[in-house]
Structures are given as structure tokens and as C-alpha cells.
Design a protein that fits this description.
heterodimer, A: about 170 residues, mainly alpha, Rna Polymerase Sigma Factor, Chain: A, Arc Repressor Mutant, subunit A, globular, B: about 260 residues, alpha+beta, Phosphorylase Kinase, domain 1, seven-stranded antiparallel β-sheet
């Protein structure tokens, strides 16, 4: 496949990841556009036969972190937090549970959120996640287990929650 | 999987990382089997694994399928070929030179005229620092000239590079001392000098990200500040004396501090 076509074929996945990471679909779309543009401009830097998706995710991550720094002045409070404006998740599973899950996800520090999304949603192997995040596999594993435990605590002991912990969820 | 030293028959319970890798099917077969076995007799670990699995599928449900509803295209700006960029740059250069030819003679007659650059931030700060601290009679400086060695090592440490204090003795100004000030991007140092009549000059030193070498004048009221940048350090010499005199001292100071005053003479 041509390089351009291959980049384009990953756009839907990148978009999903960017939306989950930022919690803001407009921002996510810009991020994906910037990522693809940069990837196409720098195709020469890509080593053939290495993992294109991990490479794209690395570019996206760097852009996101840059933009995050630039936007830092904009404080995000609970009321205007991005996940508040997201559509309520579809009714495949208990919407309330997903709401809480969403809230917990954006309470995680960025480095826990990204590894959780890459492994659980994007289904990257630890090896691929280590490339995308530019950290050793051991770091991926420790961050991931901390992220999971953090989420678990947020979901079971969250102050806004009265009902039982996450149980009702089925695989879609 | 490792075993406890004292009882090799009892396997160590899997830690959180191992449980997490178990959920993702990232463990080697043997370790995977061992965790599975352990879960049977450890309800806490089993509950944790169940929660994490639920988390994983809930995250998938939350994030949904890849977002393919958007058109799959991206805007790519065509790179401008080098010859066009070079041509454009050359045009601007010619235009700029022409403009300078036309306006140059005018500008020298118009103080603060069109081609005068805005004083950079640090020169303004130096000027304000002058205005604030030189009227002080009792506390003009934080560290007095009597402790010059300490003054130099302290401010060098804070500005993170070796500083030296030029002597203005031949112009009749002796060092009063110095102080640390907040600069635009970090710390700044102010050195104060005084002549026998009580007139004061200050030399302001701060880190500057850009590195241009132009030598400029900034005026505010009866105060004048000559400022320049050398090796990523901004220097500003301020005082209420005549422009010619201040310029002469500034050129000397610049040379003393390793700058190249020849370039703007």
C-alpha cells in the first residue's frame, strides 16, 4: 500500500483515540488533521517495516502535549469539563455507569489515561504501546496497572456515586 | 515466576502488574496458568481482575468503534519550492533596502521615528528599575560594594553564568552595590554606580533568548538607557547623563564584558 493511503487508513482509529484522549471532538479532529499532515510531510523519517500506527500515535501524542501546554491557561472546572458536553454514551450498556467511567477517565493523569486507552481501546500490545509512548515496556506495565487501580478506586469510592461499582457492563 | 526464598513450594502471589498483564493476555503461558490458579483461591485478586476486565470492555463501549463518519481526507499544504522561497526572500531584501535608502536619512532626523525599534522589554525593565532604586538613600542596593566578591558570586549563581562587574572609575563612578530583580524570563541583576556628586548609573543584566547584537537607545523623561545583547545576555546601562557621555561609557562597558562594540561604532 502506498504510504499516504496507509496513513489515511488509520485515520478512523486515530480519531477515536484522539476523541477519547482529549474528550473534545473538535480538538480531536484538529489533532488528527495535524498528525496526518505532519506524518505526510515527514514520511522520510518513517522507517519502512516499522509500526506505522505506533509512529502516528507518537506524533499525535507530541502534538497533544504541545497543545495542552498552550491551552493550560484555560482552566477546566467540573461544570465546563469536556466530558460534560460529550453526548451521553449510547445505550448498549448502562449509560450512568459509562458516565461515571467517563468522569473517572478524565480524572486520571495524562500518562495513565493514554496508556489505558492505547491498551484497552486501541488494543495495542505492550510492545506497541511502548513504542508509541517512547517508554520501556516495564513502564507501560506499571503505569497501566496504576491506571487500572486508580480507575477502580475512583469508580468504587467516587464521592458522586452512591450505587454499586462497575458490574453491569457487557462486552458490546 | 519467582518463588519465596524460604518455601519454594508456595508461589509468590502475583503483583498488580502481573494481574494487569493477565487481563491483557500479555503473560507467557506458564505465568498465565499460574495466575489463573492463584485466582481460584484469592477472591480479592479475582475481584480485581473482574473489575479490570469490566473496565476494559466499558472503555471500549465508551469510545466506540473507530470514527469513520468523518470524511477521510486531510488538508495538505503544498510545500513552497525552495527557489520560490529564496526569490521571495530576495524581493523582500531588495524592498527593505530600498525603503531604508528612502527613509534612512529621514529617520536620523526624526528622533523616535519610523525606523526606531520598540525598546525591547528588558530595556524598559532596566529603565524602571533605575527609576525605582536610584532615589533610595538608605537601601539603594541589597549587597554593598564592600562585599563585592560575595555580590559577584551570588548574582552569578542566580543568573547561572559568571558575571563580572565593570569598573567605571575612570568616569568618576564607583560601585555602590547590586541587587537581584525579576526579569522578563528569569532573574536579572542590577549594579549601581555613583559619582562624587551623587549622580547614579545602573547596569542591568539579564538572560535573553534571542541574540541580536544591535546597540540601541531608549529614552524616558530625562533618563537614557543604552542596551545591547551579547551572547544571550541583555545589558542595559541607564542614567540621566548626556547621550554622548552615556554612549561612551556603554561602549566601554560592552567591551569590558566581552561584547563587540566595534560593530556598532
Amino acid at each position: 500500500m502506498k504510504f499516504e493511503a496507509e496513513v489515511i487508513s488509520w485515520l478512523p482509529q486515530l480519531r477515536r483515540y484522539a476523541r477519547a484522549l482529549t474528550g473534545d471532538s473538535a480538538w480531536a479532529d484538529d489533532l488528527v488533521q495535524d498528525t496526518a499532515e505532519r506524518a505526510l510531510a515527514r514520511w522520510a523519517a518513517f522507517r519502512p517495516n516499522s509500526n506505522l500506527r505506533a509512529w502516528l500515535l507518537t506524533i499525535l501524542r507530541h502534538l497533544y502535549i504541545d497543545q495542552l501546554r498552550a491551552r493550560r491557561e484555560i482552566t477546566v472546572d467540573e461544570e465546563s469539563a469536556p466530558w460534560r458536553n460529550l453526548e451521553a454514551p449510547a445505550g448498549v450498556v448502562d449509560g450512568l455507569v459509562l458516565r461515571d467511567l467517563q468522569r473517572a477517565l478524565y480524572c486520571l493523569p495524562l500518562e495513565q489515561r493514554e496508556v489505558l486507552l492505547l491498551v484497552c481501546v486501541e488494543e495495542l500490545t505492550y510492545q506497541e504501546a511502548s513504542v508509541a509512548l517512547s517508554v520501556p515496556v516495564g513502564t507501560v506495565m506499571s503505569r497501566l496497572s496504576r491506571a487500572r487501580e486508580h480507575m477502580r478506586v475512583l469508580l468504587t469510592e467516587g464521592p458522586t456515586r452512591k450505587s454499586a461499582p462497575l458490574k453491569v457492563v457487557r462486552n458490546p | 515466576m519467582s518463588h519465596d526464598d524460604h518455601d519454594p513450594a508456595v508461589p509468590k502471589p502475583p503483583d498488580l502488574q502481573a494481574l494487569s498483564a493477565f487481563v491483557d493476555d500479555e503473560l507467557p503461558d506458564e505465568a498465565h496458568a499460574a495466575v489463573l490458579e492463584h485466582l481460584v483461591q484469592d477472591p480479592n485478586a479475582a475481584a480485581r481482575v473482574a473489575d479490570w476486565r469490566a473496565q476494559k470492555s466499558a472503555l471500549k463501549a465508551l469510545c466506540g468503534a473507530p470514527v469513520a463518519d468523518e470524511p477521510s481526507f486531510i488538508v495538505v499544504r503544498a510545500p513552497v519550492p525552495w527557489w520560490r522561497r529564496a526569490g521571495l526572500a530576495a524581493c523582500w531584501l531588495v524592498a527593505g533596502a530600498g525603503l531604508a535608502l528612502v527613509l534612512g536619512p529621514l529617520a536620523s532626523r526624526l528622533p523616535g521615528g519610523l525606523l526606531d525599534h520598540d525598546p525591547v522589554g528588558f530595556a524598559k525593565r532596566a529603565d524602571i528599575a533605575y527609576a525605582v532604586y536610584t532615589p533610595e538613600q538608605r537601601h539603594p542596593v541589597e549587597v554593598a560594594a564592600s562585599e563585592e566578591k560575595h555580590l559577584v558570586s551570588w548574582l552569578s549563581k542566580r543568573l547561572n553564568r559568571p558575571l563580572s562587574i565593570p569598573s567605571l572609575q575612570e568616569y568618576g563612578y564607583s560601585l555602590v552595590g547590586g541587587r537581584l530583580l525579576p526579569g522578563e524570563a528569569g532573574p536579572a541583576a542590577q549594579f549601581m554606580y555613583e559619582n562624587p556628586d551623587g549622580a547614579r548609573l545602573t547596569l542591568y543584566v539579564t538572560d535573553i533568548p534571542d541574540n541580536e547584537t544591535a546597540f540601541r537607545l531608549f529614552r524616558d523623561g530625562n533618563r537614557r538607557t543604552f542596551y545591547w545583547v551579547s551572547d544571550h545576555m541583555g545589558y542595559a546601562l541607564s542614567g540621566p547623563i548626556s547621550e554622548g557621555k552615556l554612549r561612551e561609557i556603554a561602549i566601554d562597558v560592552c567591551g569590558d564584558l566581552g561584547g563587540k562594540p566595534e560593530s556598532w561604532q
